TrEMBL record:
SUPFAM superfamilies, sorted: alpha/beta-Hydrolases
Domain AB hydrolase-1: 36-309
Record organism: Hyaloscypha variabilis (strain UAMH 11265 / GT02V1 / F)
Keyword Hydrolase: yes
Origin superkingdom: Eukaryota
Any Pfam family hit: Abhydrolase_6
Gene Ontology molecular function, alphabetical: hydrolase activity
Keyword Hydrolase set for record: yes
Name of the protein this chain belongs to: Alpha/beta-hydrolase
UniProt keywords, alphabetically: Hydrolase
Length: 328
C-alpha cells in the first residue's frame, strides 16, 4: 500500500492514507459513513490490513485511516532536532523514539490532525489494533483522552510479560544484532515472520517478501549498519515494560469507555490464550464479544482473511455507530 500523505510529529514523517469508499457519494451516504482506524503492531506495517481495507471500501460506506507507526514501514524517516533527542539503551543509541508510550502520543496527534479524535464535531472512530497496537491504543484512550466508538483488539498483548525468547534477547543486548551480516539478519527477519503465520502457504503467496521488505536492503548509515536493520532492532530495544505496567498498576483497563471485541488466532505462538483471558478480566465487562479463530496464528488476518472479514463487518454493524462530520 502506498501511503501518500505525511504527518510530521516530533521528527518523524508519519505516512498515512485517509480514504473514503467509492460508494459514498450522496449526503445520506456521508451521514451513514463509519470511520475506522487501523493500527498495526511489530514488526509489521500497515500492509497487513490491505485485504480487509479493500473489502471494506468495496462493500460499504467507510472512511478509513491507515498509517505506518513511526519507525516502521514507510514511516522510518526521522530528522533529529533540539526538541527530539536521541533515545538510548544501555548498549546502543538509536535516533527517534518508537516506544509504546511515544506511539500513543503520535496516534493522538494523527487523529487530531485528520479530525477523527472525537473532539467537538469530529467523529470518534472505530479502531482495530493488532499486536502491540493494543497497548498503544489503550494508552491513547486511557492516558491521553482519545475517544473511540468501539475497539477491536486483535491478537494483542497488553499484559506482562512481553515478548518471547528472541525479543527478550534483543532487548537485553541489541548491539550484536546491529552487527549481523545482512544475509544473516534477513534470515532472522524471515524466521520471525514465519513464526507468526499458521499456514506456510500464505507466506509462499508473496506475503513473506512483503512483510520483510521494510526491514531488509536499503542504504547504510554512517556506522555501516543498514538503516532498515537498525530500525528493526530499535523497535524491539525500545519496547519498555513500564509503558504497560503503568496501566496495569493503575487498574486503568476497567476504565475503558467503549465496547470492545477481542479476536485471537487459536494457533498464535506469540500471544498465549491466558494473556488474552487476563486482558478480558481486567476490562471488567467492557469486552462484549470474543472470536477465537481456529487454524490461525498471530497474523490471523492473513491466515483466515475470509473469517476475519466476517468478524470485522459483523462488529462494525452491531457495535460501530455511524459517524460523519456533518452530524457530529
Amino acid at each position: 500500500m502506498d501511503l501518500s500523505s505525511i504527518y510530521l510529529f516530533e521528527g518523524w514523517s508519519i505516512r498515512y492514507n485517509l480514504t473514503t469508499s467509492n460508494t459514498t457519494t450522496s449526503t445520506s451516504d456521508q451521514q451513514s459513513t463509519k470511520c475506522v482506524v487501523f493500527v498495526h503492531g511489530t514488526p509489521w506495517s500497515s500492509t497487513v490490513f490491505q485485504p480487509i481495507i479493500e473489502a471494506l471500501l468495496a462493500k460499504g460506506s467507510y472512511k478509513i485511516l491507515v498509517y505506518d507507526l513511526p519507525g516502521y514501514g514507510q514511516s522510518q524517516e526521522f530528522v533529529p532536532s533540539s526538541r527530539n533527542t536521541t533515545s538510548a539503551t544501555s548498549t546502543a543509541a538509536f535516533q527517534g523514539d518508537t516506544s509504546v508510550k511515544f506511539q500513543a502520543k503520535a496516534l493522538v496527534g494523527l487523529l487530531k490532525h485528520v479530525q477523527l479524535d472525537g473532539a467537538g464535531r469530529n467523529p470518534a472512530p472505530a479502531i482495530i489494533a493488532h499486536d502491540i497496537a493494543g497497548a498503544i491504543v489503550l494508552r491513547a484512550h486511557l492516558l491521553h483522552g482519545a475517544e473511540f466508538d468501539t475497539m477491536m483488539l486483535l491478537d494483542t498483548n497488553a499484559v506482562l510479560p512481553w515478548g518471547d525468547g528472541f525479543y527478550t534477547l534483543v532487548r537485553s543486548d541489541p548491539l550484536p544484532f546491529l552487527r549481523l551480516p545482512p544475509s544473516i539478519f534477513e534470515a532472522v527477519v524471515r524466521a520471525v515472520i514465519r513464526s507468526a503465520c499458521y499456514d506456510p502457504n500464505v507466506l509462499q503467496m508473496g506475503w513473506e517478501d512483503e512483510l520483510a521488505r521494510p526491514w531488509i536492503g536499503g542504504p547504510s548509515d554512517d556506522a555501516g549498519v543498514g538503516e532498515r536493520q537498525r530500525s528493526f532492532v530499535r523497535q524491539i530495544a525500545q519496547a519498555n515494560d513500564g509503558d504497560v505496567a503503568e496501566m496495569l498498576a493503575g487498574e486503568l483497563y476497567e476504565r475503558v469507555r467503549c465496547n470492545v471485541k477481542i479476536v485471537w488466532g487459536e494457533q498464535d505462538q506469540w500471544i498465549p490464550r491466558e494473556k488474552i483471558e487476563e486482558l478480558i478480566r481486567r476490562m471488567n465487562g467492557r469486552v462484549k464479544e470474543c472470536a477465537f479463530i481456529p487454524e490461525a496464528g498471530h497474523l490471523v488476518m492473513l491466515d483466515q482473511p475470509g473469517r476475519f472479514a466476517i468478524e470485522v463487518f459483523d462488529w462494525l454493524t452491531r457495535f460501530g455507530s455511524p459517524r460523519s462530520l456533518a452530524t457530529n
